[in-house]
Amino acid sequence: MTLEDSVHAFRLHALQRASELGNVSAACRELGISRTVFYRWRRRYELYGRDGLHPRRHRARRGRPPVLDTQEEKAILAMALAWPTAGPQRISDELFQTGRYIPASTIYRALRRMGLGTRRERLLVLERHSATSAGLLTERTRRKLKRARRRARHVQATEPGELVCLDSFYIGKLKGVGKVWQLTACDAASSYGTARIVPAATAHETARFLKEVLVPLYQEAGWPIQRVLTDCGSEYRGAFDRACEELGLRHTRTKPQHPWTNGFVERLQGTILHEHWRVAFRRRYFTGYGQLEDSLASYLRFYNDERTHRGYRTRGRTPSQIFWGAAGRTHDRKD
Fold first, then answer.
1. pLDDT tens, 89-107?
2. Is pLDDT above 80 for 133?
3. Between residues 288 and 255, which one has the greater pLDDT?
4. Confidence class of residue 134 from pLDDT cuts 50, 70 and 90?
5. Is the pLDDT at 215 greater than 80, yes or no?
6. Of the candidates 111, 223, 212, 246, which has an alpha carbon nearest to the alpha carbon of residue 162?
7. What is the DSSP track for 163-214?
8. Consecutive H or E run containing 11
9. Are 239 and 203 in contact (CB under 8 A)?
10. Are 321 and 334 in contact (CB under 8 A)?
């Protein structure tokens, strides 16, 4: 007996039992149904006979109409492949600048349908394309480091130059180039990023980075550097300390084994790694420090001047809008 036959027999039994007892309420209590349902069944029996008590067959309801049209899906796909390390929210922000508003949740569902729901899947597509079209050999081994971060005292600055966070980052040893390090600085008030490629992270290199890059940059913008924050590495001692004394800068260090205290520049380095280097190394082959420096400078122009930002410091503004035009200052930036 099928389920449909069982339901039909139960309804016939309910009508028969009410006739035997001569009391509809008693029959409904005995069978555990309401009188409203009983009278509905009896009316269908009177109109259509025994066949009227068969359960109705409901068709599946139509799903909601598709949210995205073909052009929007193509735009999402193009943005995901152009920026494979960007998440749905970043893609939504970038598309909004072109006049298309698509919620991040909708973009995430679309990427999953395309088989591009994760960053790794998007990078693999780019890697296969680069391997077939450009013949690039990429590094297959990826190490994922998970560090438990504890909440520490919040580091905050109210205006550019009040606190500049510095850190060094080992990019790797490139064939034909050698060891490559990145010296990075992030302004705590505006998120403005500055970086330089060096062959080694030494105290002399960090001192040169401070004197030749950071100090002239902040002087041009009209914000004097007041304090620099670094970790306890050897590259921020010796020559670097002497450079801070000569320039009249206050130099503070994070506590040992507390890298999250310098989280502003740590996060910037992670962003540069995910959005730039992991993409750039799959698209081209670098043969010298000059090419690396030009590639990094190009991304930093995009990061500071064009990229969408949602942080509590920027509040939708770009770092350049704060760094070059904060506090009502007028400044013509030199290209």
1. 999 999 999 898 999 999 9
2. no
3. 288
4. low
5. yes
6. 223
7. -EEEEEEEEEEETTTEEEEEEEEEETTT--EEEEEESS--HHHHHHIIIIII
8. helix 3-21
9. yes
10. no
Q: What is the C-alpha separation between 10 and 8, in angstroms, rounded?
A: 6
Distance CA(40)–CA(53), nearest Å, equals: 10
Domain 164-328 in this protein, CATH class:
alpha beta
Burial 261-271 (b: 16+ CB within 10 A, else e): bbbbbbebbeb
- Please count the CA atoms within 13 angstroms of the CA of 37 that sit on its side-chain side: 12
The answer to whether 183 and 284 are in contact (CB under 8 A) is no
d(CA 122, CA 80): 7
pLDDT score of 139: 53
Separation of alpha carbons 147 and 170, rounded Å: 18
- Domain limits, the chain: 3-53, 70-133, 164-328
Beta bridge partners of 165: 186, 229
Strand partners, 228: 164, 251
* Residues with Cβ within 8 Å of residue 306, at least 6 apart in sequence: 318
Q: Is residue 149 pLDDT above 50, yes or no?
A: no
Continuous segment of H or E residues that includes residue 52: none
DSSP state of 262: G
Contact 315, 330 (CB under 8 A): no
Residue with tokens 């550097």: 225
**Cα 70 from Cα 301, distance rounded (Å):** 32
What is the pTM for the complete model shown? Answer: 0.63
112: which residues sit within 8 A by CB, 6+ positions away?
Answer: none
The secondary structure of residue 306, as a DSSP letter, is: T
Helix, strand, coil percent values for the chain (each to nearest 5)? 50, 10, 35
Query: pLDDT of 6-62, one tens digit each?
Result: 888 999 999 999 999 999 999 999 999 999 999 999 999 998 888 888 887 777 667
Residue among 324, 279, 327 at smallest CA distance from 301: 324
